[in-house]
Design brief:
With about 130 residues, the chain is of the alpha+beta class. The protein is built from 6 helices and 4 strands; from the N terminus they run H-H-H-H-H-E-E-E-E-H.
């Protein structure tokens, strides 16, 4: 595990270089040691939007992007509500360094999607059920 202050300094440097550009941030993170990168992706130094962009490399819907920007990456271990579709909630979560999209009825997780198309797959599943 990386020292907290070293991780903070690294995050500051990366964020300064990327200048709030999510695509640039993702490119820089690609070059960071995998173990350190995984620590950053669930830390208080990044927000959930930056982590979403890192894994999926596209812009979510506006409300989803705003929700993600307001949540720290450290909250991704529990899951962050991205959107609600009818009776379903779609949450973004990181489990063992793997991004997941969960579809919930508000109490139970009904489906879990992984992979590059997980967000779209979760939305399509919610819309069709």
């Amino acid at each position: 595990m990386t020292d907290y202050f070293e991780l903070a300094k690294l995050a500051d440097r990366i964020l300064a270089i990327s200048d709030d550009d999510a695509a640039e941030l993702a490119a820089i993170l690609d070059d960071v040691d995998e173990d350190v990168r995984n620590e950053l992706l669930v830390s208080d130094f990044l927000n959930a939007y930056q982590v979403f962009w890192y894994f999926y490399r596209y812009e979510p819907e506006i409300l989803a992007a705003e929700r993600l920007m307001l949540s720290s990456a450290s909250s991704l271990s529990r899951g962050v509500l991205i959107e609600e579709r009818d009776l379903f909630q779609i949450l973004f979560r990181i489990t063992d360094s793997v991004p997941e999209m969960l579809v919930s009825d508000g109490e139970d997780v009904l489906m879990v999607f992984r992979g590059r198309s997980a967000y779209r797959d979760a939305a399509e599943w919610a819309d069709s059920n």
